Amino acid sequence: MRASYIVLGGVLAGLLSSTAHADPTDQAPSPRYDYSRFSDGPRNVPTPRGASLARAQAIGLGTREAASRAMHQPPPEAWLRVAAWRGEAVERLLWPVDDGRFIRGFGFVRHTRPDLRHDGVDIGAAPGSIVRAAADGVVVYSDNGVRGFGNVVMIAHPNGWVSLYAHNARTTVQAGWRVRRGERIALVGMTGITHAPHVHFELFDRGSNIDPLALFDGGPAFVERVAARAHRAGEVPAPVAVDADDRPTPAPLEPSAAAAPSDPARVGSEALVRRLHRFRPSAELLAETPGRTFQNLLWPVRGGSVRRSSSARLEVDATDAPLRAVADGRCVYASGDTVVLLHPMGWVTTYRGASDLAIEAGAEVTRGAWIARGTSRVRVEVRVEGRRVDPLERMVHVPGRAD
After folding, report:
1. Helix or strand or coil: residue 244?
2. Is the N or C terminus of the chain more exposed, i.e. has fewer CB atoms within 10 Å?
3. Predicted structure pTM score
């Protein structure tokens, strides 16, 4: 019996000893907050093209490497030369969201992680509100490849500063685009790691984060008081009054809280459709039209047949068949039985006689996407620079025709 107690005691002692000296790597890790459930999307950025694309490629803009350099190193001289395209000195910044609310400032101001520095200023605003460039410069990056920031814009300024605008619903400028103070560069959203619509603004001075709050003009009363106090202390240049030139009114490209109902150029308006049916799309409108460019168009029905065609119009029997987008682009009008799409190559396609519209004005479309249900008589028009062209000449996969 005594021997049994001795053996049992030895086993217990061994268990206690092994527990006390267990390898920490064998123990379950402590739970951590899982940020992977936050999406950096949906990605909604312009497709680089034209002179801006050529400029970006020439001086190394638009890549994740460029974004990293903008945040951690002084901007290259080539960037600063392009950023100084207007020749205006940059000493102060424009508050980037009209009527935007100050939410959180720079420094150790987080409630959940007081040990973690907040490297910018958070500005709250309604989704779709206009985000403006804080100063003249050149767009270094406009994409969503920086984790946690969602659709983000970075601008290099001629004095060596770089400003960053994160969590946008979409960006409206492309890398290489030369911007002026107050120009629209994005729309407020909540992409990336965020719980509410706002703009996270950061300012870098030759690769280091600095507090921008006292440098803002046109902000809410609290921000104006901070700027005035810092100027009296000799820390920053004198605040500048903001006028209409600092906040130009762009032609809205999609319905939003910031869109003026009377604006004839807004997406969703019949006035814009009439303009597109008579003239070539403006360069600004095309710059905001997403997607790939094609030299042909997809047959607009899954099935269906040609009822009648001419050099100006195609009539299709698409009874109860899905109508689909003939190419990538954006829906600029959707009402009643009519859908109008604008494509990156400047073409405009119009569908009349549709039913059960499955798309809204402002929505991005991809080639082949379902946009409505067909009827026995769907009329399709294609316009190039305001002129009607023969739709069948540009279409592939036409029933009964070998392409």
Report:
1. helix
2. N
3. 0.56
